[in-house]
Amino acid sequence: MRTLAHLAHLALTVAVVAGCASTEPDHQHHHHHHSMTAEEAARLRGVATTYLGLLSGGDPATAWAMWTTDAQQRDPREVFVDRLAQCEPGVPYEVLGVVPNGPDLARVAWRHGERTGEHLLRLHDGRWRVDPVDTTTCGAP
Q1: H-type helices in the chain, by residue range?
Q2: Are 51 and 132 in contact (CB under 8 A)?
Q3: What residue range is the signal peptide (predicted)?
Q4: Is 51 within 8 Å of 98 (Cβ atoms)?
Q5: Burial class (CB in 10 A: 0-12, 13-18, 19+), 17
Q6: CA 8, CA 32: separation in Å to the nearest integer?
């Protein structure tokens, strides 16, 4: 009986270790999480605050210019600007947190009125660019 319990424990341990060795693309970057400097964290928060401030201040064209090339190709500037023109102006966006996901990716959590959401920041050619997760509604930049 003791051997069966030992084997069950061993099988569970192997399953847990195998789960940790996941091949998810950003799983390997988790060890970078703690290596971000205070200066880099402040820079990321600054980019996020600038971007959300442009949306709050009614300047979606400049906000769109901060997007990654892929995001810009998915959602043309004119379409984004027209859509945001339909939104309620003056409701401020608030940065709730910025969490690094590796050396070239970070997640930004935000609040806009009653709504919360997130977008990504990607390091591209030495500059942090916004990669919006969802650009289809007023509450999701």
Answers
A1: 2-20, 38-56, 60-65, 69-74, 77-85
A2: no
A3: 1-18
A4: no
A5: exposed
A6: 34
| Strand order across the 127-132 sheet | 93-100, 105-112, 115-124, 127-132
Structure tokens at 82: 């027209």
- Apex 27 CA angle, 23 and 28, nearest 5: 90
Residues making up the chain, counted from first to last:
141
Question: CA-to-CA distance for 81 and 63, rounded, in angstroms?
Answer: 9
Q: How far apart are CA 115 and CA 118, in angstroms?
A: 10
pLDDT tens sequence across 95-107: 999 999 988 999 9
Residue 8 structure tokens: 């069950």
pTM of the model: 0.69
DSSP 15: H
Please report, for residues 13, 37, 44, 87, 115, the alpha-carbon distance to residue 32 in angstroms, rounded to integers and kept in the order given.
25, 11, 15, 38, 30
Do strands 115-124 and 105-112 pair parallel, antiparallel, or not at all (unpaired)?
antiparallel
